[in-house]
Structures are given as C-alpha cells and as structure tokens.
Amino acid sequence: MDIGEVLVSAWKTIWKHKVLWLVGILASFGRGGGGGNGGSSSYQYSNGEYSGQFNQFQRMIESVPGWVWILLIIALVLLLVAFAVIGLIGRISLIKGVNDVEEGAEKLHFFSLLKSSLRYFWRFFLQGLLVLVVILVLMAAIFVPLIFLGVITMGIGLLLLIPVMCCLMPLFIVLGLYLQQCQTAMVVEDVGLMDGFRRGWEVTKKNPGWILLTGLILGTIDVVISLVVSLPIIILVLPPILAVASRQQELVYGSLAVVGLLCCLYLPVLLLVSGILEAYTAAGWTIAFRRLTGRASKAGMPAGATPAVPPSFTPLDAMTYESPAPAAPAVEPPPFDDNPQV
Asked: Under a CB-based contact definition with an 8 Å cutoff, are residues 42 and 294 in contact?
C-alpha cells in the first residue's frame, strides 16, 4: 500500500465532494469529548464581596424542586443519545460516501447519502453496544479488585492503578484500530455484524504495520489540528479567570458577556474544521482499507473500464526478496557441413 497515495486521495475526495464536510459535522457530534470540569473550588470568601452572592446562589439551588432536577437529567440523557445517534449516522455516511466515490460515483447527495446509510445503522449500533459491554466487564474485573485492595491497604493498593492504566492504553488503541477495520468492512463489503468482526480481524492480522502507520499519521493530524483549533477557546477563557482573580464584579460580568459572544461567533468555524477533519479521517481509513484488500479506485474512469490493480508489495517483502537465478547461457549448435566425409 502506498500511504502517500492514500492521504492524497483522501484529500482530493473530500475537496471534490464538499458535501462530505457537512456529513463530517454530523459525525463530529458523536465524539466522546465530554470533559467534565469537576474541580470544585475550596476558595474561601469569608470577608469578600462574593460570600453573599454565593450563599444566595446556594439558596436558589436548594429551592428548586426535585422533579425539576429529574427532568433536567432526563433531558440531558436524551440529548446525549441524540448526539450519539447523529454522530453514528454521520460516520456511516462518510464511509459510504467515500466508498461510492472510489467505486466511480461522480456526485454525492446529502439526503440520499444519509438514507442509504440507515441500512447499516443497527450493525454499527449493536457492535458499539457489544464492545461497550465487554469493556465494562473488563474494567469491572480489573478495577473492582484494585479498589478493594486499596481499601484494605489504606489506599496503598491504589498506586497499582497507574501501571494498570499505562498497560490498558495500548490495548485500547489497538482495539480502536481493529474496530475501525470492522466498521469499514461492514460498509465496503456489506457484511453483517459477526462477519464484520471476522473480516476486520483478517485485515488487521495481515497488515498490522500498515494499519499502525495509518493510525499514527491520521491520529497525529487529528490531534495537531484539534489543538490548533482549540487555542482560541483557551485564550478566550483566560480573561474571565483573571477577572475572577481580581475580585471585581463588573469586570467578571463584562468578560463573561464578551467571551460568550466571541464563542458564538467562533462556533461555525469550529464546526467547519471539525467536519473537514472527520471527513478526511474517514476518507483516509476507507481508502486504506480498500487498498489493503486489493480494491483500486474507479474514480474518474469511463463506465465499464476495469482499473489495473498493482501487485501488493510491503516493506517485509523487500527483506525476503530473492533475485531470480541467472539464466544458463545459450549453447550454439555446431556449424552445418555441406560436404560431409563418410
């Protein structure tokens, strides 16, 4: 597989078919970037002007009926489920759209693409549910004994969590790369759930080096661009923090209003970049899967033409390559005698 050709083809595909950007925005809704900021501050405002406001806010929270909090929790759960479903449909549509382009489709339509991807929805949903159950059982089997050990050892046993997490991180990375091949196989080869698991394992087992290299490159691109896009958000958060530290009420409210307005203005840019990044990542994985399974691109070819598939050659082949033995020299026949002597 030519990794350079895969990366260039992925960019050409999403640049020509910009409808994939919009589909990528939908796929970005399913990203698990919750990031709960659960750090409760213990800063004491015993003599500050914030103590009265904090007590007033606390009384307001306590006066809210319990059924209101229950409704808010239900609404939050439904919102998260909706985002997960939208993200799943978007991810399937990206794989389907890129595969259609590779098969020779000249134009993609947004709603047709979403509609055609629904036939794969339950395969992806059941796969995600099955993997989630397995991960939860595995985590319970690992962490429950460690927590029990930490309790009986007065917290000393909890130190084992650090090496365990370090060992689990590579496992989760490999699992993610394998599941990527399973999902791509279910769309590209139109196979069922269990066949997708089997086909993903076959492709991963035969091409571990190429899959790791593709994951490293696409993952690096994802992380770098995400950090660059997040820098304005980080910069915008600094003024309210400084305003809180200065303990000036007018400055806090003013900075929060400005930051809220700027975040609303920056949100379309953030969604657009996220959509392009999701589309490029999905295109890279889909084209890489096709190349690893011997499928050449039919994009831009006349109808009925068959693309030439180059022979598979990997770096391992170069190490085990043996040059053919030299051919034996040709033996010239003896000259013909016109007057033989008897």
From this structure: no
